[in-house]
Amino acid sequence: MVLQIMVHRNSSMISNHSIYSLEGITFMFNEEFRLKNPIRWGMVGGGRGSEIGHSHRAAASRDNLFQLLAGAFDIDPIRGQDFGQNLGLEPERCYPDYQTLFAEEAKRTDGIQAVSIATPNSTHFTISMAALEAGIHVICEKPVSFTVAEAKELKETAELKNCIFAVMYGYTGFPMIHQARKMVEKGELGDIRMVAMQFAHGFNSGDDSPGASWRMNPEISGPTFVLGDLGTHTFYLGELITGLKVDKLCCSRQSFVKSRAPLEDNAHVMMNFEGGAVGTLWASAVNAGSMHQQKIRVTGSKASIEWWDEYPNQLRYEIQGKPAQILERGMGYLHNESSAVSCNRIGGGHGEGFFESWANLYHRYALAIEAKQKDEITPNQPWYPDIDAGINGVRLLECCVESTDNDNKWVKF
Ligand SMILES: NC(=O)c1ccc[n+]([C@@H]2O[C@H](COP(=O)([O-])OP(=O)(O)OC[C@H]3O[C@@H](n4cnc5c(N)ncnc54)[C@H](O)[C@@H]3O)[C@@H](O)[C@H]2O)c1
């Protein structure tokens, strides 16, 4: 996907520059670049006590590009409405369910333009479809659906309704991921040979925490547990950094805690990419003692790079025959023309983290929504994790299940 957005002076973007470009700029993200009217925004899910609701709100509000005006925050209507009011929303815009949210907001001249969906997996497809049909831009949690066929339906409907469909692959907003991507693109690693991906925590090594319960239930989680919950994140990092496309894969998955069957709490995947490179993906919730261990290592004919989400401001760069280097976010030696630089929010040495990465993505969603609404310069869309990324995540899961169900056979992707 082309990596630039240009928004002209006569648009509603306030800027002292004649061209606003996310890539190819050397200044940091800040609130100077804002929309005259922030995008009217709502949420489904992400209510009181949810794991990920706050991250969406913190990220969306960071650059004043979204304004939270309405929501159906909870499966329990009373709790959801109470929660919305405590967030400062008008009581009549705290709805008991998503159907009422979309129907009532459609009647208003100031109804929501975009919605984030932060509910358990089984609801993503239905709620996203309802939002799109109401003409509302969607930012959806992963996996976007249970099947590839459904994910493709979402894409078709989004196109029909001229809406963006963004997927919350939240780690892809880290600047050093974009440095990695640029290094691969510029051939600094040589020809890519191997991609090792892992997201292997230990939080479910023993008994399940209450928050994990729906993740172990196939009716709510879908056909997988850790592959969908964790593997899709790192798989997308691999796709984004290398641009490689999987040709076929072979998967082995287990339920080490037997009560979780048929859902896996550990999985290993081998992949052959088109063009000859190979890859592995390890997703696990039973890597005892591990906090996150989300890592990606890309190895080329000349050098390797390695990124670890517990140290997201750094990228390890190993050139064959030379001492290893640690590249740091916010430094002048990074590729200027990539988001490694344009997404910085503070100088190097300070610790940017998860919320900044998410805010970087929400910043892009806002620009994409603005461009979509104005039908602006279509070849120059800003990059963001879109519905194609969502479709491929679901395809990964389908292929892994097919492989495991068939004695770990190799499956065409
Ligand atoms: N992108 C990430 O890094 C990341 C991290 C954690 C979770 N997630 C994803 O986010 C989603 C939510 O996960 P979680 O851990 O926050 O779950 P959770 O169980 O902690 O919270 C879910 C929230 O959704 C509400 N809800 C459920 N059904 C609803 C409905 N029909 N209408 C309105 N509200 C409803 C619940 O009341 C609760 O507030 C999942 O799909 C998960 O995969 C993504």
> Could you tell me the number of beta strands?
16
Question: Poorly predicted ranges (pLDDT <50, ≥5 residues)?
Answer: 1-21
Radius of gyration: 21 Å
How many individual helices?
A: 11
> What structural class do the secondary elements suggest?
alpha/beta
| Ligands | nicotinamide-adenine-dinucleotide
Strand order of the largest sheet: 15-14-13-12-8-11-10-9-16
Oligomer: single chain
Mean pLDDT reading: 90
Q: What separation lies between the terminal Cα atoms? A: 21 Å
Name the helicity range.
25-40%
Specify the overall morphology.
globular
> How much of the residues is beta strand, in percent?
15-25%
Order of helices and strands: EEEHEHHEHEHEHEHHEEEEEEEHHHE
Major beta-sheet overview: 9 strands, mixed
Write the SSE topology.
Layout: E1 13-14, E2 34-35, E3 39-45, H1 53-61, E4 66-72, H2 77-86, H3 98-107, E5 114-118, H4 124-133, E6 137-140, H5 148-160, E7 165-167, H6 175-185, E8 192-200, H7 218-221, H8 226-242, E9 246-254, E10 266-273, E11 278-284, E12 294-300, E13 303-308, E14 314-319, E15 325-328, H9 339-342, H10 354-374, H11 387-405, E16 411-412
Parallel strand pairs: 3-4, 3-5, 5-6, 6-7, 8-11
Antiparallel strand pairs: 1-2, 8-12, 9-10, 9-16, 10-11, 12-13, 13-14, 14-15
Helix pairs in contact: 1-10, 4-5, 5-11, 6-8, 8-11
The protein binds nicotinamide-adenine-dinucleotide.
Nicotinamide-adenine-dinucleotide binds next to strand 3.
